[in-house]
Amino acid sequence: MAGRRTSEEVYDHLRLHIVENRIPPGERLNIDALARQLGVSQTPVREAVRRLEGDKLLVNESGRGYRTTPLLDLAGLRNLFEFRLLVDVWAARSVAVNRLANPAPAMRAEIDRFEDLLPTTSDIPRELVGHDTRFHGLILDALGNDVVRDAYEQTHAHLHTFRLYAADTDGSVTLTEHRGIFQAVEACDPDAAEAAMRVHLTAAYARFAEAFDDTAPELRSPGAHRMF
Q: Would you state the pLDDT for residue 79?
């Protein structure tokens, strides 16, 4: 494949290596060296690193080139999940109310796809990032609110949390929690959808916080029905 990699393929390759910390936090990247290593010209590498900068996985230091960003600290993890408690919980409740735009069929398909994949994949962490991103994205897309969707995407929440810790090594815990959210949305039960999403995010925060030696502070969770 040398010499034929597209910028998309270079981007996917570098993103995976950064998320899995095969390229460590704080590592300086040399575009010429990467191009030689991947067997491509510098052009697809430059395009890929610009996208990774947009993902907040790389930072361009003036005159010094690109460096991988540091991992989230505990305060940053808490801030991110408090943001998600505002947006994801509200989104789950909202789509469960809207029967016409209910995303349950697509959610079921994504859960089934991931569940079928688990016994065959050799890279569960990578597949879990993709599944988690798609599952939550289906709920956000069903809102039909581009402002909320864009703000959420700008956090790159899934990429940065999964850099911390392989918190669910076989994917089964996440799958169970996602299935609970799906069932509530499918039943058009907004209270249950809100509760299931809140349980999922709170549990995920605790799992990712295991990456730190310090005790994780509790999430400051907004009360029910208080967003928007």
A: 95
The CATH architecture that domain 7-68 belongs to is: Orthogonal Bundle (1.10)
Measure the CA–CA gap between 78 and 146, rounded to whole angstroms.
Answer: 25
| CA 86 – CA 228 distance, rounded (Å) | 10
Q: What does DSSP assign to residue 211? A: T
> Alpha-carbon distance 116 to 108, whole Å?
12
Domain ranges of the chain: 7-68, 74-209
- What Rg, from alpha-carbon coordinates, does the chain have? 19
Three-point CA angle 201, 203, 209, nearest 5°: 100
Output the pTM of the full model.
0.84
Tens of pLDDT along 156-212? 888 888 888 767 788 899 999 999 999 999 999 999 999 999 999 999 999 999 989
The three state secondary structure string of 112-165 is: HHHHHHCCCCCCHHHHHHHHHHHHHHHHHHHHCCHHHHHHHHCCCHHHHHHCCC
Of the two residues 13 and 228, the one the predictor is more confident about is 13
Superfamily for domain range 74-209: GntR ligand-binding domain-like (1.20.120.530)
